[in-house]
Amino acid sequence: MNALDQLTESFSRLPGIGKKSAARISASLLKMDKAFLLRFADQLATLQDKIKACSVCGAWTETDPCPICSDMLRDRTVICVVEQPQDVATINNSHEYSGLFHVLGGVISPLEGLTPDKLRIQSLVERVKSEGIKEVILATNPTVEGDTTALYIQRVLADTGVAVSRLASGLPVGGDLEYADHLTLARSFRGRIRI
Questions:
Q1: CB within 8 A of 177, min separation 6: which ones?
Q2: Mean pLDDT of the chain
């Protein structure tokens, strides 16, 4: 296996990149400026040294605590609970939410060995109790595992007195009923609002 094949194999191990995409990426790198390649290689080599999980919320950051946890202008009475660190950026970039975050590090999935004790659920409970949190918004994905995790967290927080809500799910804006699956339609009907 030559160097190009090895690079292609490495790229194909990344999520969402198949063999053909990996081969295209590898071939395009051969045509790029050497200075770019050196900078890119350095960024990859030092990524894990520079980016860490925030000790408070679990989001990826270069500073600890992260800029979101350090921002005193954010609503410090609300925590949005997400599955993965990248979910923080997705929600924050919408500019619709101005509270704090808490990253679980996955969802409950016994088949994959992910039990509640392996997620950051206990640290969420501690934050709710110690930081004066009034609402926890559960923003786990609308999957069986995400719903199970949300239900578990709701039960764990039941005795804290904090309000627990779940992101609405259903038909996307611009979506077509014809292409909606049964579960999406069911969620849309359950989450309907009066106009």
A1: 171, 185
A2: 92
Count of CB atoms situated within 10 Å of the CB of 63: 10
Q: Tell me: pLDDT of 34 over 70.
A: yes
List the Cα angle 59/61/66 in 5-degree steps. 75
Closest residue by Cα to residue 101 from 145, 61, 69: 69
Distance of alpha carbon 159 from alpha carbon 104, whole angstroms: 20
Condensed to tens digits (0 to 9), the pLDDT of residues 152-169 reads: 999 999 999 999 999 887
CB contact at 8 A, 140 and 149: yes
What's the order of all strands across the beta sheet hosting 99-103? 99-103, 75-82, 135-138, 163-166
User: Measured between alpha carbons, how far is residue 33 from residues 6, 23, 28, 44, 165 in Å?
Assistant: 20, 18, 10, 17, 50
168-179, pLDDT tens digit by residue?
A: 877 777 776 677
Identify the CA nearest to 57 among candidates 76, 35, 32.
Answer: 76
> Is the peptide bond between 142 and the residue preceding it cis, with omega within 30 degrees of 0?
no
17: left (phi over 0), alpha (psi -120 to 50) or beta: beta
Query: In sequence order, what are the residues at sequence separation of 6 or more whose Cβ sits closer than 8 angstroms to the Cβ of residue 32?
Result: none
Whether residue 125 contacts residue 100, with contact meaning beta carbons closer than 8 Å, is answered with no
